[in-house]
Amino acid sequence: MFSSSLPLGRFAGIGVRAHWSVAIVLALLSWMLAAEVLPAAAPGHQAVAYWATAIVTAVCFLASLLAHELMHAVRARRYGMTVKSITLWMLGGMTELDGNPPSPKADLWIALSGPLVSLAIGGAGYGGAVLAAGHLPALIVTGLSWLGLTNLLLGVFNLLPGAPLDGGRVLRALVWKRTRDRARAAAVAAKTGQVLGGLLIALGFAEVLLLGSLGGLWLGLVGWFLIGAAQMDVNAGLMREQLGGITVRDIMDPHPPVAPGWWTVAAFVEQAAGQARKRVFPVTSFDGRPEGVVSLRELARLTAQQRLVTRVSDAGHPARHIARPGDRVLDLLSTGGLRSADDLVLVVEHGTLAGTVGLDDITRALELAALGGRNVPA
């Protein structure tokens, strides 16, 4: 989902990225502030003043979202968890943690830390606007007031008891502490999140139909997102528990048919491709070093004359996924995973090809884990 994101740097030692949808949010917020909010609250200014204030206010709001996520990350690290990254996107932010919180208490405080920061920023912003009224220009006071109220609303909304909102994680922590069953607690939080999402969709449609306000469409979109994200939360939790101890070595094919990179395409098709019963092959050099990946689809695009003179290594493409035998399958999936049957993970050890992992291998591992079976090397 977040593969097309832009690095923003590192804050508190944590890599931060922005999904392209953040640009849409920045543009929409700036337009709303410059065209509606600021002119209504502080009339009589030139358009450039409205737009300058609007852009600064929108950027400050995105910075407050980053502060919200950073507090989640900092609190998680205090409980010994590894923070992989923070990504800002259209509906807020996401802090990616490695593994589960070690205890219900850790889960509770990691979840609460973000909304508490939003509420603190909101209180400071709105309180500052009240104190600054009459002393600072009306445009600045209005922008500060909007920033404060928006953060207060964000903090309260995030505390609603349904996954994947922070309030859902608070609920999960409380149920976890009471039942001592984290999986059950996660299921309760996800179910509550889906119910909450359904209510938001219903409220959104009611707002559109009864009040004629298009703002209900946004409310419905948030509800739809909550329902989907809550189910994804359950699926991700189940996958973490099922695949937690499985490594790439456990699921890879240690003896895959290879495509010798120095062969011509014609020779490979005639002597090896037809017998291998595979569609995608690792390309290796004469001494066994991986050089890339080639698929029958790519070879079929060449003319008969081209196949006679083109080497296999020139017909394929660089490997998109490289892994080591000891890597966890969960880590492999978190990097983006395999998206199609034409993808192939090259497993490399001591510089040579040790095996491959294809989409079928990942699917087999997931299905065996769901059935309670062991994943053993092929």
From TrEMBL:
InterPro entries: CBS_dom_sf, Peptidase_M50, UCP006404_Pept_M50_CBS. It is found in: Cell membrane. The chain crosses the membrane at residues 20-42, 48-67, 109-131, 138-160, 208-230. Residues 57-130, 140-196 form the Peptidase M50 domain. Zn(2+) binds at residues 68, 72, 166. Keywords: CBS domain, Cell membrane, Hydrolase, Membrane, Metal-binding, Metalloprotease, Protease, Repeat, Transmembrane, Transmembrane helix, Zinc. Binds 1 zinc ion per subunit. One of its GO terms (cellular component) is plasma membrane. GO terms for biological process: proteolysis. The active site is at 69. Its cofactor is Zn(2+). It is a multi-pass membrane protein. GO terms for molecular function: metal ion binding; metallopeptidase activity. PANTHER family: MEMBRANE-ASSOCIATED ZINC METALLOPROTEASE M50B, STAGE IV SPORULATION PROTEIN FB. Belongs to the peptidase M50B family. This is Zinc metalloprotease.
